[in-house]
Amino acid sequence: MTRVHNFNAGPAALPLPALERARDELVDFQGTGMSIMEHSHRGKTYEAVHHEAGALLRTLLGISDDYAVLFLQGGASQQFAMVPMNLLRPDQSADYVLTGVWSEKALSEAKLVGKARTAATTAVDGRYTRVPKQSELELDPAAAYVHLTSNNTIFGTQWPAFPSTGEVPAVCDMSSDILSRRFDVSRFGLIYAGAQKNLGPSGLVVVIVRKDLVAAGRKDIPKIFRYATHAENDSLYNTPPTFAIYLLRNVLLWTESLGGLAAIEEQNRKKGELLYGAIDRLASFYRCPVERESRSLMNVVYRLPSEELEAKFVSEATKAGLVGLKGHRSVGGIRASLYNAVSLEDVSALVSFMESFAAKNG
Questions:
Q1: Quick check: pTM over 0.90?
Q2: Of 95, 197, 271, 326, catalytic
Q3: May I ask the CATH architecture of the domain 16-257?
Q4: What's the pLDDT at 347?
Q5: Does residue 102 have an active-site annotation?
Q6: Domain coordinates of the chain in residue numbers?
Q7: With 80 as the cut, is the pLDDT of residue 1 above it?
Q8: Residue 211: active-site member
């Protein structure tokens, strides 16, 4: 079996040990005579996996008992609506910090639910090349919450450190960099993350929400969309995506085996330094459009001298076993997603290809 170097933005690379365990347990899970996918979500066999995944996530992220950990469906896009549905009351407004396409979408959904405003934006002609400074945030001290997007997959920007939101709860979409570095969960009122980058397969979204916000959530919305419903039922109110949660459990065990977030963060910094170092070293051929202090360690975007060369780069890279490098259709260019399961060896292979390609085409 030959596995490619997978730089897809999501669904993305998964750790091989997590996949191999799933392969070995796929038909017969723990001698039960059936797959975990075939087990009832009300049965003890699946519930053990469900609870283990939650406990591992709490340990790895340092989540206190003040927070509920929810396993939901609908992806981060559904959370664009669920957050204001639960937290935004008719007499309040919410602040949104715009740093890319996904934060724009989140604001648009919030405006369908209630009052929401732009507290800061770094867009220039529809493009984002940096995240705002603390001094650029025009926050409403009476806002229901402040919404942030920690990492921007399309434009390749990331908050190097999170801004202060004062007494207003911070809500953060961490879909593309959760579990990639250490951070203080207690600084946030709510965190949500689609699983298909660093946590597991698509079909699952993790929500980490302060219990006081759950208790104060609106009751005039359908039960299925209330955080309280899922918190009270341990994410088992309806049938959860059981196989996705099982694979999340496998990924979290792999993360723990490497040494947790400290080890993962160190590895991710090494990968970023290697790839950005190559881009900067070969600056006559490759160009990163992101301001240095806002560069993402998860999604590295760069341009070549022409779109024709970019198309040739993607084509030849794919033939060489380097896949998923085409930039988002809205911005073009090249994008290498360096999620946790992408190894330093994968990045080294990409850098070697980049050096060779530049030498032949520069």
A1: yes
A2: 197
A3: 3-Layer(aba) Sandwich (3.40)
A4: 98
A5: yes
A6: 16-257, 259-361
A7: no
A8: no
